[in-house]
Every structure is written in structure tokens, then in C-alpha cells.
Amino acid sequence: MAKFVLACDGGGIRGAASAEFLRLLEKDTGKSVYDMFDFFAGTSTGGIIAVGIGVLKMKAAKLAELYNYQNGNAIMNKTIWDRRFGMIQVKPKYDGKGKRRILKKYFGDAKFGSAKKPTMVVTYDVEKRVSAVLKSFKQTSLSVVEAADATSAAPTYFPTVKCGPQWLIDGGVIANNPSMCAYAEAFKRWKGTDEDIRVVNIGTGTRTRKIDGKESRDWGAIGWLKHDLLGVTMDETTVEYQMKTILDKKYLRINSELLEVSDDMDDCSRGNIKNLKVLGEEWYRRFGKQVKQLLS
Question: Structure pTM?
């Protein structure tokens, strides 16, 4: 009997496309995403989606609602420093208070350990300089808000988050696509059984912004930061290659290039959020049938 894993990528507000895809999957099948999968994993915005479904059994429509103009701008509320000095950024772009307030609004006081199905989010421990995968069946005393806040603490965008004894940042710096982390944990959990592990992975769009190779030879720290260094570190293609090589047709990635959508993680304009939801609809038209076949 197959075991199904849902793994959601990071990408800030672009998670609106991922949530919209899941909303349409629920609408089309008449089943909740929670009931369709046995294991949930996410990084950053994907981690928020993963804990919402995996721990609180939230409907995808409720998560899709989270990605609206009001919430986006409450989360991406610029600090006084950023409003005054713009590109000369020596503090996080956002103070994180709005993000935590929205997480609290949707997740309340729920404990991470209350999940009935295994759920995990990827973070990075800055003091130990190692990945830190938070698991509902290990870090049981953490709140859902703490786990979601830590996995989405993108460097330069939000402050580092203290989570128990650890200081954590967004797991996107090491595994923006959490599929391999999720598969490794699922394999360990069901090893030695006849379970067939299948993974559905939802991305947040592939950047198409060109980096000039010739010019990049002369860039230092500021030059690379100006030309999307964080985006380079969050590239998902290595994990995608690994998963396809190992699982072949038992791994399905839902993603596409960002053509009509901003690739900025914090573009919370009404127009961009609308376009992101349209992108989610396009993904469902393209991949919906394949997901249903894999889940069957």
C-alpha cells in the first residue's frame, strides 16, 4: 500500500500559487488534502502550508485565503530603517512582528506535537551551522507558530528566530525544496515494510531573471546581494534531479517558470497576488490529472 508525501517549496508570497493549486485539488476531488497524504513537509512559505494542513487539518481554501493583500502587507511591513534608507539595508527588511501576528491569527496556540500525521519543516541553526529539521514527532513542545515563524525567517527579510535553545533562519538557504528531507524521513519511517513511497512536490515558480556571467566576475558581496544571491542559494534544481533519479515516476514536481508573475518573494501588490493565483490555476490544468493518478 502506498504512502503519500506532500512537500512544499519556499518562496514568500509566491506560496499563493501553491495554496491555490491545493484548493483546486480539494475542490476537484471532494477530499481534503489532509486525507490524501500521509506525511507533510515544507520550507519557508511551504512550511506554513505544511503545518496548516498537517497539524491543524486546515482546508486548502483557508490557506489560500491567508495569501491575500491585507495579510501580505501586514507580514511585509517595512521597518522604519528600510522606509528611510531603502537599499542601504543594515537591518532585516521586515521586523517579523506582522508575520507572527498573522501566524497566530491562523494557527492559534496549537502545539506542533498535536499533529496526528508526521509533519516537518526545514530550518537552519545559525550558531551550530547545521540544518535543523523540526519534526512534529520530535519537537513536540514547540507551538505551530514557532515552527512556522522559524522556517520562514528568510535572511535579510526577517530577523533570526529563537526557537527553544536554537537560533533559526529560513530553511531555504539549504533546502528550499524539502522533498529529499521528507523522502529520507519517510523512508526511515516505513523502511522494511511493503509501503510504496510517492512524493508530490509543489514549487513556487522558477526565476527567469538573467544573471550576467561576464559581469559577475567583478562582483563582491554587495554586487551579489544586488543580483539575487539569496535566490541562487535557494535553487531547487539539485533536489529535483535527486528525486527524479531515485523515484522516477513516483515523484511529481508541480512548477513552471515565472513569466507573468514577479519573482520577488515580497511583492504583495493586489495585481501580483491575483497573478499568482492564476498561476496556481494554470498548474492545476497542467498537473492536476497527474496528481490524481499518482494518488490513486
Answer: 0.90
pLDDT digits (tens, 9 = 90+) for 200-237: 999 999 876 676 677 777 777 666 666 566 556 666 67
Confirm if 170 and 132 have CB atoms less than 8 A apart: no
Provide the phi-psi class of 233: left if phi over 0, else alpha when psi is between -120 and 50, else beta. alpha
In the chain, which residue ranges form alpha helices assigned H by DSSP?
15-29, 33-36, 45-54, 60-66, 69-75, 80-85, 97-107, 144-151, 172-175, 179-190, 213-216, 221-226, 229-233, 237-247, 270-295
Reference 59, options 30, 16, 38, 102; nearest CA is 30
Chain segment 155-195, per-residue pLDDT in tens: 989 999 999 899 999 999 999 999 999 999 999 999 867 67
65: cell is 485565503
